[in-house]
Amino acid sequence: MTEPQPLALPTAFLNGQFVPVEEAKISPFDRGFIFGDGVYEVIPYYAGRGLRAKEHLQRLQRSMDLLDLANPYPVEAWERHIAELLKRNGGGDQAVYIQVTRGVAKRDFAPPKGLTPTAFMMSNVLARPSQALYEKGLNCVTLDDFRWGRCQVKSTALLGAVLLKHEATQMGADDCVLFRDGYLTESSASNVAIVKNGVILCPPKDNFILPGITYDLMIELAQQHGMPLEMRKVTRKEVLNADEIWLTSSTKEVIAITTLDGRPVGHASHAGKPGPLFWRMLDHFQTYKQSLQRLPAAAE
Ligand code: PDD
Among this protein's residues, is 233 annotated catalytic? Predict the structure, then answer.
């Protein structure tokens, strides 16, 4: 028997109040529950310093704008509430989850005007992948991306991603690499880039992928360190013949995919292992993370 996992760190935030996570209750009439009518963010904090927290809050705003959803707080208030949540949950490295839904109303597809949005936050311990996992990499399968046409919105309506990840794990894989009309999109909850002949190739930020904050950081680090990179459509054939495949997200940071559809990724000495450019990027990423510690913490 496995021990029941705690839902999250002990304190949550609900509509302006800090409450024990088990006591954070919302109405079943909340449109987030009924329709998945809401948006979310996951922001990584390392010893209280947010990794691109402002950019996450800006993306939260863009997601709300695309759904015509009112933001309950200005950025400064979000930052204050996040700092308090981090403090109440004991500091250290935490992933802060923010969710805003359109609020409580009689069930009707058309969103009524003037609803009060529901604002919820919780946090979890943020554990970076272990060295053993970095060295092993992930085992993924390719799947057809059947999600909707607004993947740039970080919506809580995640059934497409849930079913894709379910299919991948049922096949014994860690996750999936998705294709739409023969082109690479992303993974169930991460962006994907490949390396071919020393060039990092990453799909353009259109309505079929989430514009990842980690993805942007990866692009910036590549540019800063003279690693050639092209942002363009990537074909299925290119992915299947890639020298390296990387997955990026706020919780996974950067990690290599070393097996795809049961075949080792890459060639020669690093077939089925993370490639040399991955190790360089991971190093730049860790150095960037360490540099955050020179900034003031969100919560001391
Ligand atoms: N997922 N693509 C999708 C579909 C995602 O859900 C995510 C993030 C990303 C990576 O974005 P970022 O680098 O900003 O975290 C790409 C988060 C971590 C989640 O749902 O838990």
Answer: no
N residues, the chain: 300
Ligand 1 contact via 214 beta carbon (within 6 Å)? yes
The amino acid occupying position 125 is V
Closest by CA to 247, choosing from 275, 209, 214, 290, is 214
CATH of 131-289, one of 3.30.450.40, 3.20.20.70, 3.20.10.10, 3.30.1330.30: 3.20.10.10
- Going by alpha carbons, the residue nearest to atom 4 of ligand 1 is 189
The per-residue pLDDT for range 218-229, each reduced to its tens digit, is 999 999 999 999
d(CA 129, CA 261): 22
**Angle subtended at Cα 258 by Cα 254 and Cα 263, rounded to the nearest 5 degrees:** 155
pLDDT tens digits for range 168-209: 999 999 999 999 999 999 999 999 999 999 999 999 999 999
- For the Cβ of 251 lying below 6 angstroms from any atom of ligand 1, the answer is yes
Sequence spans of domains, the chain:
11-125, 131-289
**Gap from CA of 249 to ligand 1 centroid (Å):** 5
CB 287 within 8 A of CB 46: no
Among protein residues, the one whose CA lies closest to atom 16 of ligand 1: 190
List the beta bridge partners of residue 62. Answer: none
Which fold would CATH assign to domain 11-125?
A: D-amino Acid Aminotransferase; Chain A, domain 1 (3.30.470)
